[in-house]
Amino acid sequence: MSEGRFGAHGGQYVPETLMNAVTELEAAYAKYKNDPEFVSELTELFNGYANRPSPLYYAGKMTEDLGGAKVYLKREDMNFTGSHKINNVLGQVLLAKKMGKTRVIAETGAGQHGVATATAAALFGMECEIFMGRTDTERQALNVYKMRLLGAKVHAVDSGTATLKDAVSETMREWTKRISDTHYVLGSVMGPHPFPTIVRDFQSVISREIKAQLYEKEGRLPDAVIACVGGGSNAMGAFYHFIDDKSVRLVGCEAAGRGADTFETAATITTGKPGIFHGMKSYFCQDEYGQIAPVYSISAGLDYPGIGPEHAWLHDTGRAEYVPVTDDEAVGAFEYLSKTEGIIPAIESAHALAHAIAIAPKMSRDKIIVVNISGRGDKDCAAIARYRGEDIYD
Ligand SMILES: *Cc1c(COP(=O)(O)O)cnc(C)c1O
Predict the structure, then answer these.
(1) Do residues 299 and 351 lie in contact, with contact meaning Cβ atoms separated by under 8 Å?
(2) Which of 234, 253, 295 should be mutated for ligand 1, with most atoms under 8 A from CB?
(3) Across the strands, what pairs with 156?
């Protein structure tokens, strides 16, 4: 697709001051993406540092209990730093180093992307500054501590709702102030071209591995791949190498919060309209005046009012389906996987699991579902306990 367009979506809607930065990034990525030395260094980081390949685990007890399709879990929660975020971060920070940059900046919501970026910056000896909504710094204080421990400077953002969207806006603003030595490590398949393509390519290792691992175990393609969608990077990574395999259903699970028919939701495809924000054309949750609407989800990682442009296009063409999953359904799935398989998933990933739990029993036993477990759930235990009326800290 030319110039970062995915059908009507994508593009480069940035202020003039950022055009040089995105053009420089585009040229550098074109130069390095197939460079044998870059590819081998990144593979070494994936395998030697991030603990790849992540296992494709047959969830036997869950399959037995649901009594339908076989369920496999792609264990991105087993990656170093606990989620799929590290795949993209290692790729981008390596690219930034090749570009001669000495400083990286990034936004973060729950703190997973901030921690992954601070980790890679420590490894590469780069200066690192993270922007995080003040509300999120309070909800995820442990991750703030980790970022500081890793040597990053953390800025609490007070504008707007003081959450993820405001952190993205602030990081873009910071980038315009200091481009020459600084790379913006964007955390999802969003923002201006070339970010949606770069992030998708680095995350596509997920579907490349799923395909090979499932061939080894079952000798065939899955019938469905299910992933949660915030900006959409773990889902794009899990879908990418299956897009041309038309027999594989691709299902993205959006955070419906208290319900897609309430004002407390973050289900972008279900409730959003086309618009332009954060440098891209895509679908966004908007109010009656076309302003970006405040969004809500129990999951800080899915609490974003937009979706990456490639997902918007997969939706328009009907290649992928997008379904809303409520807080309540996700919390149920979080508890279910913990009790059934002994795996505590991220509350984000639990949105994808909830959908698998709903559809597996309706599918025959010879069908195969793969659920992407995008991260581990340790970070969520306090919030889920609180949701159930327990307070584990006070
Ligand atoms: C950040 C995050 C997400 C949401 O981001 P995507 O770009 O949509 O993947 C999902 N799961 C986990 C564990 C995360 O940390």
Answers:
(1) yes
(2) 234
(3) 132
Q: CA torsion sign, 78 to 79 to 80 to 82? A: negative
Per-residue pLDDT band for 394 (boundaries 50, 70, 90) equals very low
135 lines ligand 1 (CB under 6 A): no
What would the two tokens of residue 366 be?
């010879």
pLDDT tens per residue across span 199-210 = 999 999 999 999
Q: Quick one: pLDDT at residue 232?
A: 98
- Judge whether residue 2 has pLDDT over 70: no
> Does residue 23 contact residue 12 with C-beta atoms inside 8 Å?
no
DSSP category for residue 393? -
For residue 128 the two structure tokens come to 């690192």
Q: What is the pLDDT of residues 124-138, one digit of tens each?
A: 999 999 999 999 999
- Nearest-atom number in ligand 1 for the CA of 302 is 4
Would you list the DSSP string of 182-214? EEE---SS-SSTTHHHHHHHHHTHHHHHHHHHH
